[in-house]
From TrEMBL:
It holds the Pfam family FCD. GO terms for molecular function: DNA binding; DNA-binding transcription factor activity. This is FCD domain protein. SMART domains: FCD, HTH_GNTR. Keywords: DNA-binding, Transcription, Transcription regulation. Residues 9-76 form the HTH gntR-type domain.
Length: 241
């Protein structure tokens, strides 16, 4: 495939996505080597763009570049697994999709309950009010059969992001984009139902109320129940191998 300057996106983006997806899917296996000239020839791009692609892949720990041996594809254990591009490409790859969804859900189970407890202690009044507003919106949309709508997704992302950021723990806050990416991926893959379970909607409301009233232990419990429910739903839709 040749990429021309008339493409609506920068040359770097489509080439990077195609190579990243091929590495993650195993089409380009770990240990395989190629050169900048190989990229130029294959994609019809300049050496400058090829070098930018190589650097971007290096930043994602998908390849390692050396003057002597060229560009070497790295093993899965080396990938920058928290990077949103790597997560998105894994979700788009059938061989990686289920593993990515399950691992990210396990991460949420480990982090979000503790973040919710911290948010109950540290959130400011505006954040507490907004969480309640978002939980009401999420429930209204879900009960109206709009659980797989863009409005529901945006509200859900803001809800979970706000919990992480209002915890005032910079490590938790740094995971906000990761959680947003997996929520988006679930919706794009059709794994978010139009009618979420009443239990899940109720947990959103109770979690927001607990944080708003400063009830840390209750917030932790409701957050754990919420993400555990998501794990159980995922197990039915995409059984782990």
């Amino acid at each position: 495939m040749t990429y021309t300057p008339t493409s609506p996106t920068p040359l770097l983006d489509p080439v990077l996505k195609e190579l990243g997806t091929e590495i993650i899917s195993g089409k380009i296996p770990a240990g395989q080597r190629f050169t900048l000239q190989d990229l130029c020839t294959r994609f019809g791009i300049s050496r400058t763009v090829a070098r930018e692609v190589m650097r971007a892949l290096e930043q994602l720990n998908l390849v390692h570049a050396s003057r002597r041996v060229g560009i070497t594809v790295l093993e899965k254990k080396d990938w920058a697994v928290f990077d949103k591009s790597v997560i998105a490409w894994r979700l788009e790859t059938p061989q990686e999709r289920d593993l990515q969804l399950h691992s990210l859900t396990q991460l949420r189970i480990a982090v979000e309950p503790i973040a919710a407890r911290a948010a109950a202690n540290n959130a400011n009044p505006e954040e507490r009010t907004r969480l309640v507003e978002l939980s009401t919106l999420i429930c209204d949309l879900g009960r109206s059969g709009m659980g797989n709508s863009p409005d529901f997704l945006n509200a859900d992302i803001e809800f979970h992001t706000l919990i992480l950021t209002s915890s005032r723990n910079e490590m938790f806050a740094s995971l906000a984009s990761t959680v947003a990416t997996v929520l988006t991926g679930r919706a794009q893959l059709g794994l978010q139902p139009n009618h979420p379970s009443e239990e899940a909607l109720d947990h959103h409301e109770r979690l927001a109320a607990a944080i708003a009233s400063g009830e840390g232990l209750a917030a932790e419990d409701y957050a754990r129940m919420l993400v555990s429910e998501a794990r159980e739903s995922l197990a039915v839709l995409t059984p782990a191998s």
